[in-house]
Specification:
This protein is an alpha/beta fold. It contains six helices and eleven strands. Bound molecules: S-adenosylmethionine. S-adenosylmethionine binds next to α2.
């Protein structure tokens, strides 16, 4: 579970770039396929950036996330959007959606394939027929480890980062926050690298048709993504 300090760092450090980029690609993909979903749910919505983009483009968006800190930031960004704190492994809203999204490698936060399968079964249940489930997962070939690096977050706050692979299938982001030189906080976020073929198998098991699993969302020969984009459809 993300701590409040980490949620603040996430929001202010620039990681909102990922849902912004995803939102831009998603809107292009919807237009290219002449799709106009009326409602959308963003699973593990984080700071609510994608919900806001969908909302600004005429799609009634809702969001949910495990972290109350992320949901507080999302709700302050757009108070009219409906947000819930919940666990996507067990989440079963009493509403149906035309589109469900899950971005920013949120599914890599789920370490058990059995739990990933449960999420897919749940999404299938609350997606309207003809609806799409669109998400990304980390691409093992693009996950690099990094030497520690530091940067100033403000006059008094310095942030230290490092990316490591504690095991071949795991990737861990380590973050330390210093205030006036004193360590205030340390967080480790561990993600599991999922094999895209296995993930697509779980989608089919849940009833979906897999429309796309590629390193770009759009057919653009010049584009090269660093994650896998998966598009699944409920018939
Ligand atoms: C890297 S962030 C991505 C957030 C957002 N989708 C984005 O693109 O900026 C991963 C998010 O997944 C959420 N998360 C992790 N496990 C979850 C779970 N079981 N249920 C709901 N949210 C979860 C975290 O709280 C965090 O906000």
């Amino acid at each position: 579970m993300y701590s409040d300090v980490f949620c603040k760092v996430y929001n202010e450090f620039g990681w909102n770039y990922y849902p912004e980029a995803f939102g831009e690609q998603l809107l292009k993909w919807l237009a290219a396929n002449a799709l106009c979903p009326g409602t959308a749910l963003d699973l593990a919505c984080g700071t609510g950036v994608l919900c806001q983009i969908l909302d600004q483009n005429g799609i009634k968006a809702s969001g949910m996330d495990f972290s109350a800190g992320m949901i507080r930031i999302a709700a302050s960004r757009a108070p009219h959007i409906s947000y819930e704190v919940a666990d996507m492994i067990t989440y079963r809203p009493h509403r149906q959606f035309d589109l469900v999204t899950c971005t920013g490698d949120a599914l890599n936060h789920i370490h058990s394939l059995c739990d990933v399968g449960r999420i897919f079964e749940n999404v299938y249940a609350y997606l309207n027929s003809g609806g799409y489930f669109i998400f990304d997962i980390l691409n093992e070939n693009e996950v690099s480890t990094s030497e520690p690096f530091e940067m100033d977050f403000s006059d008094r706050i310095r942030v230290w980062f490092r990316m490591v692979r504690p095991e071949p299938e795991m990737v861990q982001l380590q973050i330390r926050v210093y205030e006036d030189g004193a360590l205030q906080f340390e967080e480790r976020i561990t993600e599991k690298l999922h094999d895209p073929a296995t993930v697509c198998g779980l989608l089919r098991q849940a009833g979906f048709t897999v429309v796309r699993c590629a390193d770009t969302l759009l057919d653009d020969p010049d584009a090269h993504g660093t994650t896998w984009f998966v598009i699944a459809k409920k018939a």
